Amino acid sequence: MTSPHPRPSPDTARLVEENLMTLSQLKDMVASLSPDIYQQAFGEYGRHTLGKHVRHIIDHYDALLVGLERGGEVIDYEQRRRDEALEQWPQQAASHLAGIESRLSVLGGEPSSAALTLAYPLDEEGLSLASSLDRELAFLTSHSIHHMAIIALLAEQSGIHLPETFGVHPSTLRHWQRAPEEQASFSRRSA
What we know:
By secondary structure, the chain is mainly alpha-helical. The chain has helices spanning 10-31, 35-39, 50-69, 85-88, 90-107, 133-157, 170-190, and strands at residues 115-120, 127-132. Pfam families: DinB.
């Protein structure tokens, strides 16, 4: 007898885990910051702060989760909340990140085969693009890591020491883990 509900994809669980690892790293960093450092402006026009990049990451996760909570009809990353408190107050942002982690954890048990629609604002009409939960989770990992790499550069300018792995994509971390094995294998073949 077959189940009326599709089984969750093992890929979805793995993608959720990558996102959770990324968000945990970000949450830990944010929770350790003072508001002064979190709000410190960088760049010629003062547009870059650690907080703005963190808020931007949060906005994207919220957009996905809100879209899913509405039945997955439309995921729209352009219609973000842009809550300025999340870019001003690190403890509030860390708390919000913890909430996102809780909401994401549930997705590991969800079927990933349901079709999603991604709203993309190419022009006045925009496009509706076919997507899936797995695709959006993969996007969010890459998007978050991209901004975390910028956060790492800004943090370094403020004298904040972050782990070497902060803002490094999971695929790069896997490559780094294999690199010693590959080098040893190459050395054995060359000998």
